[in-house]
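User: I'm curious whether this sequence folds into something compact or stays loose and floppy. Could you predict its structure so I can see for myself?
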Amino acid sequence: MGYVAGMIPGDAARATVDHCYVTYDRQERQHSRCVGHWTRAGRVVSGPVEGVDVSQHWQALTVDPGPNYEWEVNVPEAARHQVAVAHHMRAYVVPRFVPVLLVVLDLAAVGLLGWVAASRLRRRVRAV
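Assistant: Here's the prediction. I'll summarize afterward.
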């Protein structure tokens, strides 16, 4: 479970946001898309970073939109490093307690497997 969530082997649970792009729909609601990089199994991986809270106050870097009708915005330093769970294709920004919760769940799963194995071993020893 920890490997799938991007927490093992020893990967930092952080994604660095490199670029964010903003577009608006017909109701003038803001939609954003961010791209960044993170470490996965010792390799640096680049791709989409989902769940970045892009503020309307982030400064646009271009006056005109790009070919996809998106404006690139300046990512402030405070928002550049996000706590995330990641796999080899994308990262998902999560609240700060989620990595700790994943480690606790991993430890509980290992403890449960150890308890089941020990109880089966005791039954075999008693049967002999």
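Summary: The chain is about 25% helix and 35% strand. The chain has a mean pLDDT of 84.
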